TrEMBL record:
<feature type="domain" description="Phosphotyrosine protein phosphatase I">
    <location>
        <begin position="5"/>
        <end position="152"/>
    </location>
</feature>
<dbReference type="GO" id="GO:0005737">
    <property type="term" value="C:cytoplasm"/>
</dbReference>
<dbReference type="InterPro" id="IPR023485">
    <property type="entry name" value="Ptyr_pPase"/>
</dbReference>
<dbReference type="InterPro" id="IPR050438">
    <property type="entry name" value="LMW_PTPase"/>
</dbReference>
<comment type="similarity">
    <text>Belongs to the low molecular weight phosphotyrosine protein phosphatase family.</text>
</comment>
<feature type="active site" description="Nucleophile">
    <location>
        <position position="11"/>
    </location>
</feature>
<keyword id="KW-0378">Hydrolase</keyword>
<protein>
    <recommendedName>
        <fullName>Phosphotyrosine protein phosphatase I domain-containing protein</fullName>
    </recommendedName>
</protein>
<dbReference type="InterPro" id="IPR017867">
    <property type="entry name" value="Tyr_phospatase_low_mol_wt"/>
</dbReference>
<keyword id="KW-0963">Cytoplasm</keyword>
<dbReference type="GO" id="GO:0003993">
    <property type="term" value="F:acid phosphatase activity"/>
</dbReference>
<dbReference type="GO" id="GO:0004726">
    <property type="term" value="F:non-membrane spanning protein tyrosine phosphatase activity"/>
</dbReference>
<dbReference type="InterPro" id="IPR036196">
    <property type="entry name" value="Ptyr_pPase_sf"/>
</dbReference>
<dbReference type="InterPro" id="IPR002115">
    <property type="entry name" value="Tyr_Pase_low_mol_wt_mml"/>
</dbReference>
<dbReference type="Pfam" id="PF01451">
    <property type="entry name" value="LMWPc"/>
</dbReference>
<keyword id="KW-0904">Protein phosphatase</keyword>
<feature type="active site">
    <location>
        <position position="17"/>
    </location>
</feature>
Length: 155
């Protein structure tokens, strides 16, 4: 059996969108008994929230759908670009930041997570200054996108 597929989800602060993406992907992997085939994590492009737990609205949204979420915010580091197979940003600003810091010899695939959304909702907007409905929208985007990501990886 080949090595594990390594996936890193990235947003600005690593307390809203990327922990939701990580949690929803982990949930889908568990339901499909595929946890042993993947290694996943999430990170931030900024240092704003290093060491923080996910935003309480991210937690509430995940709890509402029975998805376990547990993460401590961290910032992406140079080594991540060599370790992870996929580094998936939530919006164009994340992608721009990732491409600036990506070492030239890294083989990591950098894409928007929303590129995998079958509804074509490509940008997963930062909900931090929004409402609980914005977190709900992000959650649904992530569920659709990570399911499609899993299909993509398996084919």
């Amino acid at each position: 059996m080949p090595g594990k597929t390594k996936v890193l989800f990235v947003c600005l602060g690593n307390v809203c969108r990327s922990p939701i993406a990580e949690a929803t992907f982990r949930d889908i992997l568990k339901k499909n008994k595929l946890e042993d085939r993947f290694e996943i994590d999430s990170a931030a492009t900024s240092a704003y929230n290093i060491g923080d737990k996910p935003d309480y609205r991210s937690v509430l949204t995940c709890i509402k759908y029975g998805v376990y979420i547990d993460h401590i915010a961290r910032q992406i580091i140079k080594e991540d670009f060599y370790y992870y197979d996929y580094i998936l940003g939530m919006d164009e600003s994340n992608i721009s930041d990732l491409l600036i810091i990506k070492p030239s010899n890294s083989q990591a695939i950098i894409k928007l997570l929303g590129d995998f959304d079958p509804k074509g909702d490509r940008i997963i907007k930062g909900p931090y200054y929004g409402t609980i409905e914005d977190f709900e929208h992000n959650f649904q985007q992530c569920v659709r996108s990570v399911q499609s990501l899993l299909t993509h990886i398996q084919t």
